[in-house]
């Protein structure tokens, strides 16, 4: 009998703490806590159960059949993080399953947080201990559906399933396989994190490129608000304007010179600010 699989076993005897089931070669315990109050268990009855290790590492049986099994994948939620060990995911059993740190990003801040979701199946090690197994690229391709051209520039959300130096891979809620280039994000998302963005390209195979950055008009509003709040915080004037050096603007506002000028232009068009001698001032009403 193998942990992480479903088996049909025969009830052979009752004990004070449950029933023993057998496949004629090995016995396994079905604890009373795994039996609903309205269930009647009889000797010699065949029952379908899921096999797993209890908290003491003993092979046990449960009537709860999780969708995640050896060879079967589904989305599971991260419920606990143990630095130096890995993350635990809930597959519907009384005992959560460990996804080993060996299968997680090297950088701890890119590990999944509680509430993040991973696409997993199960696997056992040489000691028959049960672990979560992350979906590979091949597995995710089997899960995915192609996007058509009508999805261009549409908003999407999805979960990150793979991290590379060049960017992050996601599966959207619609099932599209997406790639987020490092230039199309503010910061690198975690494995398992849910992200929201928009489709900026659709490939011939139906995979998509996704940007987590705001659209231009949305970004201008955000940048303008940031600059305006900065000026207010300085008493109504700042020593930055159209003639400021790109490095100065980048250091102060983390904006490119072009983005800064667009934002200032918006504020001036709205008659919120004026510029004089390299300074920008709140316009008096």
Automatic annotation (TrEMBL):
It holds the Pfam family WHD_CvfB. Residues 153-213 form the S1 motif domain. The lineage of its organism: Bacteria, Bacillati, Bacillota, Bacilli, Bacillales. GO terms for molecular function: nucleic acid binding. InterPro entries: CvfB_fam, CvfB_S1_2nd, CvfB_S1_3rd, CvfB_S1_st, CvfB_WH, NA-bd_OB-fold, S1_domain, WH-like_DNA-bd_sf. PROSITE patterns: S1. It comes from the Bacteria. It comes from Lederbergia citrea. Coiled coil: none annotated. Transmembrane segments: none annotated. This is S1 motif domain-containing protein. SMART domains: S1 (SM00316). Belongs to the CvfB family. PANTHER family: CONSERVED VIRULENCE FACTOR B.
């Amino acid at each position: 009998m193998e942990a992480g699989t479903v088996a049909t076993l025969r009830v052979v005897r009752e004990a004070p703490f449950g029933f023993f089931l057998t496949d004629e070669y090995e016995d396994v315990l079905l604890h009373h806590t795994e039996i609903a109050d309205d269930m009647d268990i009889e000797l010699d009855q065949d029952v379908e159960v899921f096999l797993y290790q209890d908290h003491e590492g003993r092979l046990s049986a449960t009537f709860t059949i999780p969708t995640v099994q050896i060879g079967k994948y589904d989305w599971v939620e991260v419920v606990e993080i143990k630095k130096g060990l890995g993350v635990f995911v809930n597959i519907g059993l009384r005992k959560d399953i460990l996804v080993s740190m060996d299968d997680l990003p090297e950088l701890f801040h890119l590990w999944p947080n509680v509430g993040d979701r991973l696409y997993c199946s199960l696997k056992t090690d040489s000691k028959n201990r049960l672990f979560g197994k992350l979906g590979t690229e091949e597995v995710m391709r089997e899960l995915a559906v192609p996007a058509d051209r009508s999805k261009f520039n549409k908003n999407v959300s999805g979960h990150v399933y793979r991290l590379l130096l060049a960017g992050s891979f996601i599966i959207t809620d619609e099932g599209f396989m997406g790639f987020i280039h490092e230039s199309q994000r503010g910061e690198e998302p975690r494995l398992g994190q849910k992200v929201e963005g928009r489709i900026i390209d659709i490939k011939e195979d139906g995979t998509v490129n996704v940007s987590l950055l705001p659209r231009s008009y949305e970004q201008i509003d955000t940048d303008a608000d940031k600059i305006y709040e900065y000026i207010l915080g300085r008493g109504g004037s700042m020593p930055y304007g159209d003639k400021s050096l790109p490095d100065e603007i980048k250091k102060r506002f983390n904006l490119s010179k072009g983005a800064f000028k667009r934002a200032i232009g918006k504020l001036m068009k709205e008659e919120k600010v004026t510029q004089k001698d390299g300074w920008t001032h709140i316009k008096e009403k």
